[in-house]
Amino acid sequence: MSATKSAAKRYAMTVDTRQCVGCKACVLACKAENAVPDGFCRQWIVEEVRGEFPKLSAEIRSERCNHCTDAPCVKNCPTGASHVNEGGVVLVTHHKCSGCKACIAACPYDARFVHPEGYVDKCTFCLHRVQKGLSPACVGVCPTGTLTFGDASDPESAVSTMLRERRSKVNHPESGAGPNVHFLV
Amino acid sequence: MTTSRREFIQIGGAGLGAAALGSGLTTKWWGLDPDVVHDPGTDGDQVIPTFCELCFWKCGVLAHVKDGKVTKLVGNPEHPLSRGKLCPRGTGGTGLLYDPDRLKKPLLRKSTKRGGQEFEEVSWEKALDFTAEKLLKIKKTCGPDKVALFSHGFGGSFFKHLLFAYGSANVTAPSYGQCRGPREVGFNLTYGASLGSPEVLDIAHSRCLTLIGSHLGENMHNTQVQDFAQMIAKGGQLVVVDPRFSTAAGKARYWLPIKPGTDMALLLAWIHVILNEGLYDRDYVEKNATGLEELRAHVADKTPEWAFTETTIPASTIVETARFIAGARPASLIHPGRHVTWYGDDVQRSRAIAILNALLGSWGRRGGIFVPTQMSVPKYPVPEYSEKAKAAQDHPDGVIYPFAEEVLSHGVCDATVPGRILTKGCPIKGWIVYGSNLLQALPQRKNVEEAIQKLDLLVTIDVLPAEIVGYADVVLPEATYLERWDDVAPVPWSEPFLAIRQQVVPPMYESKPGWWIAKELAKRLDLGQYFPWESGEQLVTERLKAGGYDVEKLKAKGVVKGTPVPVRTDEGLELSFATPSKKIELYSKRMADAGLPPLPPYTRHEQPADGQFRLLFGRTPTHTFGRTTNNRFLSEVYSENEVWLNAKAAKEQGLASGEVVTLVNQDGVRSQPVKLKVTQRIRPDCVFVVHGYGHTNPGLKFAKGRGMDDQTLVTRIAVDPVAGTTGMSVNFVTIEKMTGEKSAGAAPAAKAEA
């Protein structure tokens, strides 16, 4: 039902792998903002190094839930807890979640975990902040300007500009889920 | 609201039957409930600006306080050093504030020997009386200059003031002699100014940035990393000289995996190429520098071919990178580094870097090194220091390091042991240690421990039970930066600004702010007149008022900015140099007069034998060495160090990633058990660890036993003849695999905590 109420908006994020130093400020700012419990993180850093010494190359990616357009977690949720909210943001309504983990199994990105209080938790694109006109906590803190968040359906938005002007890729395109976190290379 | 068929199916298919529906009845029926955007509720009822102390960069933060608890810290957008952003450590201030292992009450040592770790909790009254009595006794019997202060951190200012009032000039910090000292001396000798902290670098506008052992991105000084990323975004290029494929190396146009210890050869060869091919900034050098001809003669034989044999960097690469670096001038910056105490010729290496920057014309230029500006705040009126502080203790062997600008910590350490120093009179008898874990910060731990045992008094003022705290006679628990007012001190920067540190929440437990501790000690030392303020807040408020600042605005915003002045030539700055010649001194007459090489010579340093590896250490973005390794919040993403070992070397040694090993140095000193990280990202002749692990104080319940302490293995040092600073990357280790039984003590994995 929510998918229709804000069909115009399509929130998305770009992650500039040239800028990112993998410092994890995003991971920790997210933990603080969202009071993520000890032992869990909603975001993570992937450092991929290829080659053999001394011929090496590296890519650093700040990763999180992809808020997929055709989200397997939503499709596989038996209770309707996992749903599509404003701007295509995939959320979990805590009290509707039974903790059955069907969504965890379905997620191509391993973006979900069971919160100690029993529901499944993950990145929310900080929709509670976005609705107040703020940026997600990770975007706000990032000292390297790696992360850009915005409405991809608005061609004037910063995130659309990034996607237009830079080469980008997504993780696991083969999943067919339509991920909305794009990595600029 | 209409309900779709799908939602009805979901309700029916919930699969948990009556029990689930039963629990659901306490709220609403699942399928009919609206979707919720949960608000985690971490926004504060109050947002109080202050500045960070997770490292020493002093970024502005906004502290969200809800129901008296700090819920989160975010960057202050008004503050020039944070610009609304924070590094990972800055977000983790709550992990320090709410660390359950904090020092909670004053302690007096019970064990007969220092380090016995037995303490009794006492009242502040008793702890302060005890400290003051001992200090008065030392003053009476040996003189006030026999007390030294080791200080690291912004709050140390109150104790510096106390020590000067008491009559000692022995104020020291390992952040000089064991870190950035040689750089400051090298630049001072060349330009008549040092670089300070935060470093005055205009990286954001650099077209080419050359890093030599500097691992920006892993070393997370907020503004500098912001500028670094901006530079990359604008197409600026990187040349990275590092035996390790650092984060920065991964972004570099050129990565030069140099043989450790040979950086000087590369620098001299670069100078050779740039002079030989006429690539330097002729006008700038002619106008602003002296000693070009001497320099030219000095590097005549420092050819790229010669440098190849030292550095293992191909001559063609040296030529190509020299041209590349010079091609971007004057917005081409050779980063001066920060932790530069490596091989004992560190001032000379810093001089070579300073000289190279001069040839590129980068000092005072856009994209180079700017000349900072600073706001001023009147001093709080206090009496002149009555007893003239005696000359600082320098170093044993009667050697005076003419260019050392600060008292050397290891020198104070040596001057504490009778017989180790040749100067006459009483050795140092008392140490006041503020926020500096000397046992992990100073090399040659045995010497440090010996000095500690000779003291009449060791006082520590700290937030956490670092190793040094375990050796103290008196432990004074300080409030964290979020619980106190500190004095106000404008930071030299590209734009004039003034920021305040104000109390965000009241001190927890019985901890007290530094200003209070110093004032209470002063009272007991009959020095109360030096601390006339009623509180830290009053001190700051009065000083700000006297300077004509809007105090209420500062409290609300955390920062005020002044009128910008030119800090680079493109903004209208006129270059001037506070050297004897009033010019950039490529050739240093001052050094020649002191009997030191006036141009940087090449010294061939000892290399590890087969099967040995040079021990290198550095940082990880989430930690400020041992200061934060007990921070559980930050440790969620990095909780123990590991030894980086080249993959080929590992194969030869029969070692694999994840195995628990111990490092044994050239003097037979063994490290704690530590995990191995086998990687392509490092040369085969060295190993790398993140500094600040391997804590041993049982009070650090989280950090104790995690990873290894590299400083234990620094039993050998190379003292710099110019500044007396200690080169520490001169220790070689072999790697021993731990047997199952021995490795049992190794730290658990990070996630095992969950």
Describe the structure in your own words.
The complex is a heterodimer of chains A (185) and B (754). Chain A is of the alpha+beta class and 185 residues long. In chain A, strands 8-1-10-9 form a 4-stranded mixed sheet, with helices on one face. Chain A has a two-stranded antiparallel sheet with strand order 2-3. Chain A is globular, with a radius of gyration of 16 Å. Chain A has 7 helices and 10 strands. Chain B is an alpha/beta fold and 754 residues long. Among the domains of chain B are: 185-372 and 577-593, Dimethylsulfoxide Reductase, domain 2; 613-753, Barwin-like endoglucanases. Chain B is built from 22 helices and 26 strands. Chain B is globular. Chain B starts with a helix and ends in a 17-residue tail after the last strand.
Mean pLDDT of chain B: 92
The proportion of strand residues of chain A reads: 15-25%
Coarse structural class of chain B? alpha/beta
Give the strand content of chain B: 5-15%
> The CATH topology of chain A is what?
Alpha-Beta Plaits
Judged by helices, strands and strand pairing, the structural class of chain A is alpha+beta
Write down how many β-strands of chain A occur, each being a DSSP E stretch of 2 or more residues: 10
CATH evolutionary superfamily of one domain in chain B: Dimethylsulfoxide Reductase, domain 2
Mean pLDDT of chain A: 95
Fraction of residues in H or I helices of chain A: 10-25%
- Give the biggest beta sheet of chain A: 4 strands, mixed
Please give the alpha-carbon distance between the first and last residues of chain B. Answer: 41 Å
Short summary:
The complex is a heterodimer of chains A (about 180) and B (about 750). Chain A is an alpha+beta fold and about 180 residues long.
